[in-house]
Amino acid sequence: MTYRSFTLLLLALSPSLHASNFGDPELGKMKSPSCIFCHNPTGETSNTAYPKLSGQDSTYLYNTMKAYQNGDRQGAYAEMMQTQLSKLNDQDLKDIAAFYSSQP
Protein backbone atom coordinates (compact mmCIF):
# COMPACT_ATOMS: atom_id res chain seq x y z
CA MET A 1 0.00 0.00 0.00
CA THR A 2 1.40 3.36 -0.96
CA TYR A 3 1.61 6.29 1.43
CA ARG A 4 -1.05 8.14 -0.55
CA SER A 5 -3.48 5.20 -0.41
CA PHE A 6 -2.90 4.80 3.30
CA THR A 7 -3.52 8.51 3.91
CA LEU A 8 -6.75 8.44 1.89
CA LEU A 9 -7.91 5.39 3.81
CA LEU A 10 -7.28 7.14 7.14
CA LEU A 11 -9.18 10.22 5.97
CA ALA A 12 -12.12 8.11 4.82
CA LEU A 13 -12.31 6.39 8.20
CA SER A 14 -11.97 9.57 10.24
CA PRO A 15 -15.15 10.14 12.28
CA SER A 16 -14.48 13.85 12.63
CA LEU A 17 -14.45 14.25 8.86
CA HIS A 18 -17.87 12.62 8.55
CA ALA A 19 -19.34 14.41 11.56
CA SER A 20 -18.42 17.81 10.17
CA ASN A 21 -20.44 17.08 7.03
CA PHE A 22 -23.66 16.46 8.94
CA GLY A 23 -23.60 19.14 11.59
CA ASP A 24 -23.73 19.15 15.36
CA PRO A 25 -26.82 17.61 16.99
CA GLU A 26 -26.45 19.71 20.16
CA LEU A 27 -26.36 22.93 18.15
CA GLY A 28 -29.24 21.64 16.04
CA LYS A 29 -31.37 21.17 19.14
CA MET A 30 -30.76 24.80 20.09
CA LYS A 31 -31.50 26.02 16.55
CA SER A 32 -34.82 24.19 16.13
CA PRO A 33 -37.29 25.83 18.54
CA SER A 34 -39.75 26.79 15.81
CA CYS A 35 -39.77 23.19 14.51
CA ILE A 36 -41.36 21.84 17.69
CA PHE A 37 -44.76 23.39 17.03
CA CYS A 38 -45.39 20.91 14.23
CA HIS A 39 -42.74 18.21 14.71
CA ASN A 40 -42.55 18.11 18.55
CA PRO A 41 -39.25 18.46 20.43
CA THR A 42 -37.88 15.08 19.31
CA GLY A 43 -39.31 14.92 15.79
CA GLU A 44 -41.97 12.36 16.73
CA THR A 45 -45.20 14.01 15.67
CA SER A 46 -48.63 12.84 16.73
CA ASN A 47 -50.29 14.66 13.81
CA THR A 48 -50.08 12.66 10.58
CA ALA A 49 -50.16 15.89 8.56
CA TYR A 50 -46.56 16.52 9.63
CA PRO A 51 -43.74 14.08 8.82
CA LYS A 52 -41.74 12.25 11.45
CA LEU A 53 -38.21 13.67 11.55
CA SER A 54 -36.64 11.54 14.25
CA GLY A 55 -34.24 8.90 12.99
CA GLN A 56 -34.37 10.10 9.39
CA ASP A 57 -31.14 10.26 7.40
CA SER A 58 -29.43 13.60 8.03
CA THR A 59 -28.60 14.10 4.35
CA TYR A 60 -32.24 13.52 3.42
CA LEU A 61 -33.41 16.02 6.07
CA TYR A 62 -30.85 18.60 4.96
CA ASN A 63 -31.74 18.22 1.27
CA THR A 64 -35.45 18.46 2.05
CA MET A 65 -34.97 21.65 4.08
CA LYS A 66 -32.83 23.14 1.29
CA ALA A 67 -35.54 22.32 -1.25
CA TYR A 68 -38.16 24.06 0.89
CA GLN A 69 -35.84 27.00 1.50
CA ASN A 70 -35.13 27.40 -2.23
CA GLY A 71 -38.80 27.05 -3.20
CA ASP A 72 -38.12 23.79 -5.05
CA ARG A 73 -40.36 21.70 -2.81
CA GLN A 74 -44.11 22.05 -3.23
CA GLY A 75 -47.04 21.00 -1.11
CA ALA A 76 -49.56 22.20 1.42
CA TYR A 77 -46.94 23.44 3.88
CA ALA A 78 -44.24 24.54 1.43
CA GLU A 79 -44.78 28.28 1.92
CA MET A 80 -44.77 27.95 5.70
CA MET A 81 -41.60 25.82 5.59
CA GLN A 82 -39.88 28.29 3.28
CA THR A 83 -40.68 31.11 5.71
CA GLN A 84 -39.49 29.09 8.73
CA LEU A 85 -36.21 28.20 7.00
CA SER A 86 -35.54 31.54 5.32
CA LYS A 87 -33.20 32.92 7.98
CA LEU A 88 -31.15 29.75 8.44
CA ASN A 89 -27.82 29.17 6.71
CA ASP A 90 -26.44 25.86 5.44
CA GLN A 91 -24.67 25.09 8.72
CA ASP A 92 -27.87 25.72 10.66
CA LEU A 93 -29.71 23.27 8.41
CA LYS A 94 -26.96 20.65 8.81
CA ASP A 95 -27.05 21.04 12.58
CA ILE A 96 -30.84 20.71 12.69
CA ALA A 97 -30.69 17.68 10.38
CA ALA A 98 -28.04 16.10 12.63
CA PHE A 99 -30.22 16.69 15.70
CA TYR A 100 -33.36 15.09 14.30
CA SER A 101 -31.37 12.29 12.71
CA SER A 102 -29.85 11.47 16.11
CA GLN A 103 -33.26 11.06 17.76
CA PRO A 104 -34.51 7.49 18.22
UniProtKB/TrEMBL annotation:
InterPro entries: Cyt_c-like_dom, Cyt_c-like_dom_sf, Cytochrome_c_Oxidase_Subunit. It comes from the Bacteria. Keywords: Electron transport, Heme, Iron, Metal-binding, Signal, Transport. The keyword Transport applies. GO terms for molecular function: electron transfer activity; heme binding; metal ion binding. Residues 23-104 form the Cytochrome c domain. Residues 1-19 form the signal peptide. This is Cytochrome c-554(548). It comes from Vibrio atlanticus.
